[in-house]
Write a structure and sequence with these properties.
Elements (H helix, E strand, L loop, with lengths): L23 H13 L4 H17 L1 H12 L1 H13 L13 H18 L9 H4 L2 H17 L7 H14 L6 H30 L9 H9 L17 H10 L1 H18 L1 H17 L9 H27 L5 H10 L2 H5 L11 H17 L8 H7 L5
Helix pairs in contact: 1-2, 2-5, 3-4, 3-5, 3-17, 4-17, 5-7, 7-9, 8-9, 10-12, 11-12, 14-17
Subcellular location: Cell membrane
GO cellular component, one term: plasma membrane
GO molecular function: pentosyltransferase activity
Length: 392
Amino acid sequence: MVTGHGYSSPFGGYTGPSAWTAPLYPFFIAAVFRLFGIYSQTSALVLMLWNVLFDALAVFPLWHIARRSFGLRTARASVWMWAICPFTFQYIPRIWVSTLAMLLFAMIFALMLRMRGIGEAPQPLSATATPRRWLLFGLLWGVLALGEASCLLCLPVSLIWLLLPAWREPGRSQLRGMTTRAAASVAIIVACMTPWMIRNTIAFHRFIPMRTDLGLELAIGNGPGAEGLPLVYDHPSVNPVQFRLYSRLGEIEYCRERGSLAKSLIRTNPAHYAADTLRRIDFYWFGVPPPSNPNILIQYLPTGVFAFFGLCGLAGLALALHNKAPAASLMAFSFLLLPLLYYFVFVEDRFRYTLDPLIYCLTAYLWLCAEEGYRVRWLTPGWWRSHFPLSK
């Protein structure tokens, strides 16, 4: 884009138009390159500083999510955990959309709680789900769709969850008004996505909503010997043979051919595909097997912390559902739908980062409920004062 060839050639050279990734973050990188130089150290620093900013700003929606869902103590614990846990910042050096997508999804989730009036004094739905908030809801979803399209799996459930109080209300007097506002919100989402879809239709002479690379992702995640992990060596960005094939066939035909081969392999051995899917579910929540390292602590500590938060997040969600916390159902659908596509393709640890604010919130909720139940009484100041009184 910076050199004047448009949105094309994701792997170097000039291989023609591309829709390999959603457009938001590549355009953002291109803007940084124009200002600070192509692949310069200054550009790398600026992009990482933006990741720092996105990560830091997440404390605000995280605070609102935790306070509205579980109370002030959980909100304080959640944001402190987010601020001081070093593994929160592990994705900052990665020049990718992960931190921005995480921030946008957390903002959408916090906005939805506000639109339902959760954590506030009882009010009519028309007073909490105002037209302005519905428009902001649509705008945030539209921007997120241009950055991480897989998050759109949660959009239908989000709309239903917001409209549910109007449906349950006796007489359903507010349902028509809320449905109109929801339709306007969806129109904004479609308006955000339409320029990209028109561009793809013109460039490829066929309708492509967001991305073209699903066939390849399916192939590198389910090829011979994959065992639930992506076959990175078979990707055109690192494999010269695959790059030449990509250049010769073009992006659409290349991804279609790789996808057809992957589907054929899956049909040949469905049991292996099912086993790989179960492995990917495990990897998503409890960590991808770490690369070997002579330092055992460096090798296993990040994966151990990743697994700890995954386990606590799931346990916290189960507790929230048991206690009928007001936002527990929306959290459950987010946990169910956001990872769904990755289970069937391949998994990397950064894919879970979009859910991490909810995971930290539920982890804090789990441990505070345990402390209140005196299961870990030594965490309370009163226990220490009673067992180790200070002499006058």
